[in-house]
Design brief:
Helix content is 32%, strand content 21%. It contains 13 helices and 16 strands. It has helices at residues 13-16, 66-71, 84-100, 102-111, 116-123, 144-155, 169-174, 185-191, 211-214, 234-242, 275-295, 327-337, 366-373, and strands at 3-7, 23-25, 34-37, 53-56, 75-77, 136-140, 159-163, 180-181, 194-197, 221-225, 246-251, 264-266, 315-322, 342-350, 353-360, 378-383. Helix 3 crosses helix 6 and helix 12 packs antiparallel against helix 13 (366-373). Keywords: NAD, Oxidoreductase. It is an enzyme of class 1 (oxidoreductase).
């Protein structure tokens, strides 16, 4: 079977090359089977009936109408961990530049015009800053990125507190035993010399750092935000810098309020801006898309559950549906009525949505497929 893939941004060649024979890569395809993108906004786009999947070469999916896609049975993928090392390195850099006043010192040195060596020796004292060794780092969010940062910081001699009430088993296995668990955010706020944010942005996490939380923090704390600008209340952190509560704020998300402000180090969204990261994200997005189109297996979706099963039997049917009672029973009955036996199956759910894969011993009839499509709560049926 042939598939058409539409790209909304420039995607690294190493990723596009993963598609190979049977795939047409078209920038302006009207009826694509899959879409790959980075930062292009899809909120005002109309989705054709042909569209089966959207893969973002990156972690955040704020530029994609995820819920709208779920209702249409369109699986949305991201690439968690593909850019983790790039962000880890920038986080370590951020701790150093926020502590040692390196950026300010460079800017000052470049402003000198004469007797430079003499002026440097006279003026360098204004840029003295503490070392990070022995200091306490609070890591909020222990996903792929947070774990790498926590482990790297322990190797640099820092004491690390980690907080994540939803930490995965895989992340926990990868976390250094030297990282201490914080049972709540208050523990982080009261003890950390540095705080770095690595959580998703949503209605619950918006403004996680605000006037109330700054009031709980140690004087002079350094804040690092490489996740999303909206996690920190702009007005509140500027006030906290002004009164000395926050010693420095490093943000990868500059806006009009955050530029040319004393105490703010504004980085132009460079968290994942490395060739290695772009390659990793593109390759991962392409592999996930290809696997879904060819086998129906889902890995790293943000709106449907992970659901994978080796292919067997004569035919595979996949059903994206609402997570409501008796869905599997109704699907099975539609096949049983047509005297079609199920060789193997798997059903997984995630929030309001679920996904079922069925491998059949014989090829299904058009009538049985139409019966499954007609079940209330079924969003999309595919025959592979």
């Amino acid at each position: 079977m042939n598939y058409t893939i539409k790209t909304l941004n420039k995607i690294a060649k190493i990723g596009l090359d993963k598609f190979g024979e049977g795939y047409a890569l078209v920038d302006d395809a009207a009826n694509p089977d899959g879409i790959l993108l980075r930062s292009a906004s899809m909120h005002d786009m109309e989705f054709p009936e042909s569209l089966l999947s959207i893969a973002r070469a990156g972690a955040g999916v704020n530029n994609i109408p995820v819920d709208k896609c779920a209702e249409k049975g369109i699986v949305v993928f991201n690439t968690p961990g593909a850019n983790a090392n790039a962000v880890k390195e920038l986080a370590i850099t951020s701790m150093l530049i926020s502590s040692r006043k390196i950026v300010e010192g460079i800017n000052w040195a470049n402003s000198l015009t004469q007797d430079v060596a003499k002026e440097v020796e006279k003026g360098k004292a204004q840029f003295v800053g503490p070392e990070i060794e022995g200091k306490v780092l609070g890591v909020i969010g222990l996903g792929a990125i947070g774990v790498l940062i926590a482990n790297a910081a322990t190797n640099l001699g820092m004491e690390v507190l980690g907080y994540d009430p939803y930490i995965s088993v895989d992340a926990a296995w990868g976390l250094s035993r030297a990282v201490r668990k914080a049972n709540d955010l208050k523990t982080i706020f009261e003890n950390a010399d540095f705080i770095t944010l690595h959580m998703p942005y949503n209605a619950q996490t918006k403004g996680t750092l605000n006037a109330a939380t700054f009031a709980q923090m140690k004087k002079g704390v350094r804040i690092i935000n490489l996740s999303r600008g909206e996690l920190v209340n702009d007005d509140d952190i500027l006030a906290a810098i002004e009164d000395g509560t926050v010693g420095a704020y490093v943000t990868d998300f500059p806006n009009e309020k955050m530029i040319n402000r004393p105490g703010v180090i504004a980085i132009p969204h460079l968290g994942a801006s490395t060739p290695e990261s772009e390659d990793n994200c593109a390759e991962m997005a392409a592999k996930q898309t290809k696997a879904y189109l060819e086998t129906g297996n889902i890995r790293n979706s943000v709106n449907f559950p992970n659901c994978e099963m080796p292919m067997s039997g004569e035919q595979r049917i996949t059903v994206a549906h609402k997570n409501i009672p008796n869905m599997v029973g109704q699907i099975s009955t539609a096949l049983a009525d047509a005297k079609i036996n199920i060789k193997d199956m798997i059903n997984k759910s995630r929030g309001d949505y679920a996904y079922t894969i069925l491998d059949l011993e014989t090829v299904s009839s058009e009538e049985s497929i139409e019966k499954i499509k007609a079940i209330e709560g079924v969003l999309r049926v595919r025959v592979i």
